[in-house]
Amino acid sequence: MALETIEIQEKLVATFGSAVFQFDQEKDIFSFEVDADKITAVILFLKNDPTLRFHFLTDLCGIHYPDNEEERQFAVVYHLHNWYENKRIKIKSFINGAKPEIKTISNIFLSSNWMERETWDFFGINFIGHPQLKRILNMDEMISHPMRKEFPMEDSGRTDKDDRFFGRTTINS
């Protein structure tokens, strides 16, 4: 029997109550939100439950929502896959903008190690308990996190560009 989204939702609500919410079906991906303090428990449950069997972490990434209230300025998104049933789910946890941090899942999925490092590198989200949270793609000397919305899109001091080639000026005839 195929794993149905209603079965996933019912098991999660029965186990975690109101800590899991905002269930939605987006094309072929079932998505929901989880309170940040419950994320490791929920992911461990999804992996170890004999019916659900979400054994594969496809992706983990961050999102910055600077216009949201401070408690929901950042989100960490997890994509899990059940290969037995070919079922995919997306989990989103919102975290505080003043102190963006969430527990690591590198002890549940070893593959999350580099994904969490990349998310910290680009968004500055601290993964509590991560074994070696350091920059992975940017220079160690860098003091900012370039995927945050407040990061400038380009260097305003550059003199080697001609704006006409980037569609930023119009020629009046």
- The share of residues in helices is 10-25%
Overall pLDDT score: 90
Shape: elongated
The total of helices stands at 3
Topology as H/E string?
HEEHEEEEHE
What's the CATH architecture name?
A: 2-Layer Sandwich
**Biggest sheet record:** 5 strands, mixed
Q: Regarding CATH, which class?
A: Alpha Beta
Query: Which stretches are poorly predicted, pLDDT < 50 over at least 5 residues?
Result: none
CATH topology: Beta Polymerase, domain 2
Query: CATH H-level name... which superfamily?
Result: NADH:ubiquinone oxidoreductase Nqo5 subunit
Structural class: alpha/beta
What's the end-to-end separation, in Å?
A: 69 Å
Find the count of extended strands (DSSP E, 2+ residues): 7
Name the strands of the widest sheet in spatial order: 1-2-5-4-3
Strand fraction equals 25-35%
Whole-angstrom Rg: 20 Å
Description:
By secondary structure, the chain is an alpha/beta fold. The protein has a single domain (18-148), classed as 2-Layer Sandwich (Beta Polymerase, domain 2), CATH 3.30.460.80. It is built from three helices and seven strands. It has a five-stranded mixed β-sheet. Strands 6-7 form a two-stranded parallel sheet. Strand 1 (20-26) and strand 2 (29-34) form a beta hairpin. The radius of gyration is 20 Å and the shape is elongated. The model has no long low-confidence stretch (mean pLDDT 90). InterPro entries: NADH_DH_suC (IPR010218), NADH_quin_OxRdtase_su_C/D-like (IPR037232), NADH_UbQ_OxRdtase_30kDa_su (IPR001268), NADH_UbQ_OxRdtase_CS (IPR020396). It is found in: Cell membrane. One of its GO terms (cellular component) is plasma membrane. Its EC number is 7.1.1.-. It holds the Pfam family Complex1_30kDa.
